[in-house]
Write a structure and sequence with these properties.
By secondary structure, this protein is an alpha/beta fold. The chain has helices at about 70-85, 100-105, 105-120, 125-140, 180-185, 195-215, 230-245, 260-270, 275-280, 285-290, 290-305, 320-330, 340, 345-355, 360-375, 385-395, 410-420, 425-440, 450-455, 455-475, 510-530, and strands at about 5, 20-25, 30-40, 45-55, 90-95, 120-125, 150-155, 160-165, 170-175, 225-230, 255-260, 310-315, 485-490, 495-505, 530-535.
């Protein structure tokens, strides 16, 4: 008996059950883990476990490569974090890597090694995307009351500056000044010499001038923003300050405030002390003592340029922002962060407009691509909502390369998407979108193509399977006029045949060009899924 299966996707409801999620932040100085319980009914999350290990990914070789022993240490830490997350029954571990891995020539090799050894896929995020998620993390912990806030996050390799008012982020910047980076590149004396300190101060100020000027330019007349500081360096400075002024550290530290004048006083003190003497300060950790002066100087120069008189501590940052971003993408937040929840869609459309994409056409292609994705999910592929969104973005942007030239425009699309700062996506997700656009025409994905080969194996499969669907979606609108009104898909398992039945928008239209295009583009589909594709035009087909 021939088994024929109509393909219909039934979405899985999120429901009201608590969710356990883990987030790992692979920073330049430390690796951090947070495990949270999400209550989708509120919605909110509660931290149920956390851990930290100072790995110093930013302690690189001369040519900028990550050191073998540091990578080994990081993998051992990640394996330990995995065990903690699994013991808490976390359904997913979201891992992000920032500047140290982003800039290392062997960074992608390192991430592929993590995927192979731990089956853990790390999202490499851009500086701007890091800033956006920091903003989400702070928003999850502080009420902005629609007033402008400046957020500064001083990491080991970079400093993020954000201006936002609780609705949207007005500016997002990431600058290559961090506590580990500056210490390694410019500090050779202990205590630091006057000449080294002067150079370090001038260099730091010079790099911060442009992002601070951009930020101040986005303030409206009469606005007086509050400065919020996050992450390890600023928390360490607040801890030292609290011990000196109060004799103890408030719990929680969030909300603690100190002035610019007090920071200046602390910087002047730190620069006179050796590393050993800094260790004697209450609240100073051994691994923080070496880099604290450079981090304090970044904060001091940023506050000076921004003319901020004080800074308030927020203990939520990138890790919490990763959790919030996941909640947004899974439809668990639609209240005060509603505007942020559409960040991927808005930025995809923004890039499309920038490169003069025909949106009416590209939205039809994206819609057909998602329809084919939904119809074949669980039958021909096992991808979920995350991959579905990548396919949508690729459908919108697949023709963006025409902005440069129609000739080889699929390759131009790859370049424009890859370098377009698509906010809301990790760098590997951007790479997948770019590859999907690259393979919407001409050659199929091949191992010899460097941009495809560099993807982890999981994402190579995403590109191979979903680019085949994207090709069919493009063929369905070959004349770019919406000639096809409805499509019905049918799988004949025994015969290994996949049917696509088409209904034209105009009963008199023979859709010859669409039929020809589907025949021309079916090679990728047939090769990828091992099925024969059969296309029929059914003018009288009932709408589905």
């Amino acid at each position: 008996m021939v088994t024929s299966v109509p393909l219909v996707r039934i979405p899985t409801p999120i429901g009201n059950k608590d969710r356990i999620l883990a987030a790992i932040d692979m920073g330049t100085n430390s690796l951090h883990l947070v495990v949270v319980k999400i209550d989708p009914r509120l919605p909110t999350f509660t931290i149920i476990d956390r851990d930290k290990e100072t790995v110093r990914l930013g302690d690189c070789e001369t040519k900028g490569n990550l050191k073998p022993e540091v990578m080994d240490r990081a993998i051992a830490t990640l394996e330990r974090f995995q065990k903690i997350a699994k013991s808490a029954n976390a359904e997913q571990i979201i891992t992000v890597a920032t500047s140290a891995v982003r800039e290392a020539p062997n960074g992608k090799e390192f991430l592929n090694r993590i995927a192979d050894e731990l089956d853990l896929y790390v999202n490499l995020i851009s500086g701007q995307e890091e800033a956006r998620r920091i903003y989400l993390g702070v928003l999850s912990a502080m009420e902005f009351n629609n007033q402008p806030h400046i957020i500064i996050d001083i990491g080991g390799g970079s400093t993020e500056l954000i201006l936002g008012d609780g609705d949207t982020s007005r500016t997002l910047s990431s600058t290559k000044v961090g506590a580990v980076r500056l210490t390694k590149e410019f500090v050779t004396t202990d205590p630091i010499s006057k000449s080294e300190f002067a150079y370090l101060q001038a260099y730091t100020r010079g790099l911060l001038e442009r992002p601070t000027e951009e930020l101040l330019a986005n303030l409206k007349k009469g606005e007086k923003p509050r400065l919020v500081g996050t992450a390890g360096t600023i928390e360490a400075l607040a801890t030292i300050h609290a011990y000196e002024k109060l004799g103890n550290v408030p719990t929680p530290l969030g909300g603690y405030e100190f002035s610019f004048a007090e920071l200046e006083e602390l910087v002047n003190k730190l620069k006179k002390l050796s590393i050993y003497e800094r260790l004697e300060l209450p609240g100073m950790s051994e691994k923080r003592a070496e880099i604290i002066l450079a981090g304090a100087l970044v904060l001091k120069e940023a506050m000076s340029l921004l003319e901020m008189k004080s800074v308030t501590i927020c203990e939520s940052s990138l890790r919490e922002g990763v959790i919030v971003d996941w909640m947004l993408n899974h439809g668990l937040i639609d209240d005060r962060l509603r505007f942020q929840s559409s960040i991927r869609q808005r930025n995809t459309l923004k890039i499309a407009q920038k490169y003069q994409v025909n949106l009416e056409y590209s939205e039809r292609v994206a819609s057909w691509a998602l329809y084919l994705f939904d119809q074949t999910q669980g039958v021909l592929h096992q991808w979920g909502s995350d991959e579905r969104e990548l396919l949508w973005s690729a459908g919108i942007l697949h023709n963006s390369g025409v902005y440069i030239s129609h000739s080889e425009h699929h390759k131009h699309s790859y370049y424009l998407i890859r370098n377009g700062e698509l906010l809301g996506y990790s760098q590997i997700e951007i790479e997948v979108i770019a590859n999907l656009a690259r393979y919407h025409r001409k050659s199929l994905p091949k191992k010899k193509h460097e941009h495809y080969q560099n993807l982890p194996k999981k994402y190579q499969q995403v590109v191979s399977e979903l680019s085949a669907l994207l090709r069919l979606a493009i063929a369905l609108d070959r004349r770019q006029k919406g000639a096809i009104a409805n499509v019905k898909c049918w799988l004949n398992k025994n015969q290994k045949e996949f049917y696509i039945w088409l209904q034209p928008a105009d009963p008199q239209d023979d859709c010859a060009l669409e039929l020809w295009s589907l025949e021309y583009k079916k090679e990728a589909f047939e090769e990828e899924f091992g099925l024969k594709l059969i296309v029929k035009l059914e003018p009288a087909m009932v709408s589905v």
